[in-house]
Amino acid sequence: LVFFVHRCSQPFSPFWFTVEPQDTLAIRGNSALLNCSAHSDTATPARIEWKKDGTFMSLVSDERRHILPDGSLFLTHVVHSKHNKPDEGTYQCVATIENLGSISSRTARLSVAGMPRFSSQPAAATAHLGDSQVMSCEVNSDLVPFTRWEKDRQPLELNTRLVQLPNGALVVSNASEADAGLFRCLVENVGASKSSDEAQLQIVPETGEERKLEFLLQPVSVTKAVGATVLLPCVVTGYPAPHVRWMMGDKLLEESEGRVEILGGGILQISNLTEEDAGIYTCTADSGNASIEAQAQVTVQVPPQFVKRPANIYAHESMDIIFECEVTGIPAPTVKWVKNGDAVIPSDYFKIIKEHNLQVLGLVKSDEGFYQCLAENDAGNIQSSAQLIILDHVSSPGTREETAARPREKGPGEEADPTPSYPRDVVASLVSTRFIKLTWRPPAEPHGDELTYSVFYSQEGTSRERVVNTSRPGEMQVTIQNLMPDTKYRFRVVAHNSNGQGESSAALKVATQAEVQVPGPAPNLQAVSNTPTSVALSWDKPLTGNGEILTYKLYYTDKSMGNEQVGYGQSYTMTGLKKNTVYSFRVVANNKHGSGVSTEDVVVRTLSDVPSAPPQNLTLEVQNSKSIMVRWQPPPLNAQNGEIINYKIRYRKGSRRSEAAEMTAGTQLSKLIDGLERGTEYSFRVSAITVNGTGPATEWTTAETFESDLDESRVPDMPSSLHVRPLVNSIVVSWTPPENQDIVVRGYTIGYGIGSPHAQTIKVDYKQRYYTIENLDPSSHYVITLKAFNNVGEGIPVYESAITRPQSDPIDPDVDLYELFHAPYTPVPDPSPMMPPVGVQASVLSHDTIKVTWADNSLPKNQKITDNRYYTVRWKTNIPANTKVKMANTTSLSHMVTGLKPNTLYEFSVMVTKGRRTSTWSMTAQGTTFETIPSSSPKDVTVVSKENKPRTIIVNWQPPSEANGKITGYIIYYSTDVNAEVHDWVIEPVVGNRLTHQIQELTLDTTYYFKIQARNSKGMGPMSEAVHFRTPKCKLDQGFGTCSLLPESFQRAETTMFPKPFNENHLLVIVIISVGAFTIIVVVVGAFLCTRRTSSHQKKKRAASKSSNGSHKYKGNSKDLKPPDLWIHHERLELKPMDKSPEPNPVMTETPIPRTSQDITPADSALDKLLSAFVFYLISISCFSYTMPITCHVTVQSPTIAAPALQVNPNH
């Protein structure tokens, strides 16, 4: 009820960007506009400010740049020169509502087009008839979109034979005499146009002599965003004229529906790029006598997209909250969090968990505001915001001492409903290194039966509290987890009844234990597999036991689950394991102090066995009257019990008992069985084989060969029908196959054009019954032709015409929008057509497995399959059509798709086949595989020294190549001993969006070794190889306390870095001087004591005045003062908080050491000054034996003495 009231009285404030700035290419001297506008329901409009390169812009007196009323940034004229580029950079707008918060937009890059410069120009060239030639024209990369070509001073019209490449060059292929002339390229629309030199292209007849094949242009590796178009040139000259073909990996590329085209005889163009298009492309030119080839890699990037956006949150103080944020993209986006426009720095209370989620622990009122998740990769950046509102409690309980003296509040005319008094006898019943168990007794005045309790706790020295609630009413104990070892905490307990929260108990201060009493790792851990289901383990007693070993815990995992086993000896046999499975084992010794240090993991694979299950999804595809294609899938992974080395196919005719057999390799999942009889039924079964033997076989499955084969001695007949549906910029074409289905149809050719059907041609698969012709002109008359073809040739065409709609014509309301994007199923002229499966669902099971299920409406209600039909499942990793797909057959209404990529979105569809009849593809279903731990380590680890700070190093690295999910963090291990156990290395955690980290306060002139480990939401990946780095030698600069590099003389003689020992003469001098000085000072002190009382009142006033002035100076100038080297402070000193550093620091710490001399209460008498002088005197003579300048650090436990730093130079 309280929560509901607060929600109603304090609603969330809608606040977002309606327009965000976009990357812009500006022209020098012209105006430029960066759009930005924010929406809010508050009475006060949002104030828009702009940042450039991360810094707020001051636009008050700027006549050239100003903010428009809607928040957009307008530049009246762009300034740009070689040495002055004030407008080029990264821009971001920030919207602020007073007393509410701020949000930041996405970032946008403003680039300024440079002056046109030709790095290469067209040169005179000669081409043979029918051959190819390249005319160069390379300009600034940002000006390529403004480049065009002219021939004989007339604009050149480009086509599939004349192609302009992304670098500006012109490719002329299949040259004809009409191509001869003067060529030049021009750069326009960027101020004054500029043209290149003119070059003559001559066309000469082919002599018939053989010319060697050579590349005029080879493909180069390219990176493009998803949805873009890529051109890979492969221009070859030679005679006989070469044939160019392209391959992606080991697959031959074929032109498909205008998305993949080969232009100009060899230029590969891929439109509407998808993730599946990424890979290695090879172009091969073959003239019959010789061949050459070249390769290039295409990298496809995907801009960040939100899978889950952060949501608004209501919370109370001391609660823990999590803002969720899931993003996808290629490369994996980096995510950072911003609160009210300022970056959130990870700390003990602000943590990045589970990929990119932000966890805030122990909320305080100042945590209110707008939080934004900003995701960025090389392809773009996005942002999403959420608001946090901290609700006020109905009452704020104080401690027991405060509430005992405070009377109960009463309502108007009556006493308020009573809340519980404070819980009694709060004690820490169990204290460990990382957890504390608290127990207590109920309040003396509970005022109710069903009491619940909240435990508030905080680390000593911080004001931020966290809260843990009991799990059920009446429970009076709580275990606080995830504490830091050897750390002091403050606990208090509050009871709740039906009236609300009661009084707080007195604070209980408890310190966790230090982690020093537990055993070390057990050495010599060994694991041996004796049978397919058991592993024998043995180990030795830990070398550092720290007491009697009580038990050993054995932890083991097979990557899918983890378990533990408790033992008391130094060996154990683990039984009931999975066959041929990799297990990892580790042992932890326990003594009376708790669990010790774990051993390193030992990995062992259990022995293999024969498969325990048959192959899956056996299907039979009748190819013709004499052959049947047999397809299957391997047995389930957990039933293979080893590597499958072969498959055995047994088959028989009819009901005969005699069988024939065929063998395939373990990686082959299909086999064509030929030489069969016409119109005969055959039965097949398949079994899998490992080195241990043959597993069980599948059930017998039957199929009947055709009585007769389809005819391919002649071309197909005319398609039986052709229908067109014109839209504004496209025409939907649908058809039915030829009525005579005894003739083989390999596919269909669609021709279309304005007034003539021969302008453009498209070829589609024989199963296809529809096609959408796109990129057409509105209000234009198109003629369309359709022909079926096979290996003999093309059949008789059928013609149709259509006029596209006007540009202003709305979509016909009678047209089903679904049919526009998913063309209708057109039945073939068959008495009983196959209908596609329905209700397709994709259930994600693991990081590499998705189960696909569906229903078949042509089956009985019980969905039982009684005939020889089979289903084909196809899947791909993106939504756009016509991408590379994978397929598998099955005879059931479900299929397990394995071997998928982790954390990847897949799309599935299903079709059914029965004999010669097939259905169209079903509606699609989608599923995203789960993540799994990284399978490779971070790469390119480097270590460098920070400039002017030889004790600080910077570690840099790159993410693992096989992250298998979003990297949420890294752990840096470093040690001076490369062979040390892992648990002895120092660790530094780093958030997942960082690829660099500083490590400070290292020892000088020491070799350190560094390793890095990446983690995602599923766990830790492998460590990188150790990288070593040696810190430099250095000395202390006089008067500054900073470190600088030593001259070479000191590096050659390292012993001079250390103080020399005392000799006898030095010791004698020190004793004599000390005794004499002490006698004199005692006399002076005794005389001074007589006068001390008479002026004590005035001295106290002066001391108070001094203290006040000193404190004021510290507050105003502390940032400019460096801490002195010598601190002598007293026990009553009150520590003051440090000023917030202006430099960003991911780890904020508190220290009891004052930062300036003004932090310490000054001495308030001359006697104190004399005592200080005596102390400094003793320190100075104790340093005389050193041969170098040094700094002495001393703490004197005196209630009155404070002193500045002292540096002693024996040369002085």
UniProtKB/TrEMBL annotation:
Compartments reported by the entry: Cell membrane; Membrane
Principal location class: membrane
Keyword terms: Cell membrane, Disulfide bond, Glycoprotein, Immunoglobulin domain, Membrane, Repeat, Signal, Transmembrane, Transmembrane helix
Family, per entry: Belongs to the immunoglobulin superfamily. DCC family.
One Gene Ontology biological process: cell-cell adhesion
Organism per entry: Sphaeramia orbicularis
Transmembrane parts of this sequence: 1067-1091, 1170-1188
Domain Ig-like: 14-111, 116-202, 205-299, 304-389
Region spans: Disordered: 396-424, 1099-1124
InterPro entries assigned: FN3_dom, FN3_sf, Ig-like_dom, Ig-like_dom_sf, Ig-like_fold, Ig_I-set, Ig_sub, Ig_sub2
Membrane topology qualifier: Single-pass type I membrane protein
Compositionally biased residues, Basic and acidic residues: 399-413
Matching PANTHER family: NEOGENIN (PTHR44170:SF14), PROTEIN SIDEKICK (PTHR44170)
Top-level taxon: Eukaryota
Domain Fibronectin type-III: 422-515, 521-609, 614-708, 718-808, 836-932, 937-1034
GO CC, alphabetical: plasma membrane
Protein name: Neogenin 1b
